[in-house]
């Protein structure tokens, strides 16, 4: 495909392979994820023609009055930010039916509008691919020496000591995985990310579903989510922060705000895993709260790299957010999904990987580093293994402690230690 509309200096994404598979299997593929995560660039890499709805008003107008004309062009045809011209959805669906061929359209979307009676869901015609900001492997800050897919199949966790130190990882977390900011200093990137959040608070969160919301309240909610990142913060806790000292908001109001932020792909809850247990401990079902990228948590608190270095307890939560982002990217690519574990006896695992075809599970603890913390994480994973009903759930594919740096290795009992800067899909 020599005539692809590829941007200068395009960095390959893990999702590229998913998009290619989806185009071979379906008439259309929808690439969705937060604004500025690289969806348009990836869409162009797989397209032969393009309709940019976000930058050309005439295209949006044409989608209203003559949507079928907008769809005419070399295929795959990219419909960029389709939600800005929602009339094109049903027209595209009809075109898929009329043509009866695979690989006709690539759509990108930074918001997931509520389904309406005028818009068919696209079942059987459109496959969805979730994109997130760049993982460290995609941005070139992971050596990729340890493949997650191979590790889950019995591969080695061995890797040499990671270059750089904690200060470098703090800078990367502040900058985030946004393709347009990879060359920016952390403080410059944070200014742009704060502006990004301001725009979400001011216009995007009301536009996504047509419900007006107070921008100051959204900012308070984002700050509360940032303070509680990587925790199971309840709606009641978030409601108290969102009220801003002026009484208490009802949890359903908070739920509405969170739903809108989720439709904008800004926040991403990590659901609880519900395995069969050997013990009598009851499973907890609350999700963990995360942003799409760790830099959003930093920006929501208007924090800095220096402040994070001075508060490593909080940076540990930001680091867990970074690991959650990267594991979500890698796990999706190999057909696994990510959740977390917590029970009434107080045992928890930061993340659990489960195969979509029920072929197995793996558990992950996230630690910044240091012998004592790494051994603590390994001990937690061993306890978890004892608590799971192996007869019904099977042996874990792997128990992994993910660290901020250092060497990759395995304990004699097979518990792996892998620095995030060595991990790949």
Key descriptive features of the protein:
425 residues, alpha/beta, six-stranded mixed beta sheet, five-stranded parallel beta sheet, 16 helices, globular, disordered N terminus
Give, in order, the helices and strands.
HEHEHHEHEEEHHHHHHHHHEEEHHEEEE
Rounded mean pLDDT is 92
- The tally of helices reads 16
**What is the percent of helical residues?**
40-55%
Strand content: 5-15%
Broad structural category: alpha/beta
Major beta sheet, strand line-up: 7-8-9-10-12-11
How many strands appear in the DSSP assignment? 13
Uncertain stretches of 5 or more adjacent residues: 1-7
Main pleated sheet:
6 strands, mixed
- First CA to last CA: what distance? 25 Å
Overview of this protein structure:
This protein has 425 residues and is of the alpha/beta class. The protein has helices at 15-25, 39-45, 57-65, 67-70, 87-99, 148-151, 166-175, 186-207, 215-227, 235-243, 251-263, 294-300, 305-310, 312-333, 371-387, 390-393; strands spanning 28-32, 49-52, 77-80, 105-109, 126-130, 146-147, 336-342, 348-355, 361-366, 398-403, 409-410, 416-419, 423-424. It is built from 16 helices and 13 strands. Helix 7 crosses helix 12 (294-300) and helix 10 (235-243) crosses helix 11. It is globular and about 65 Å long.
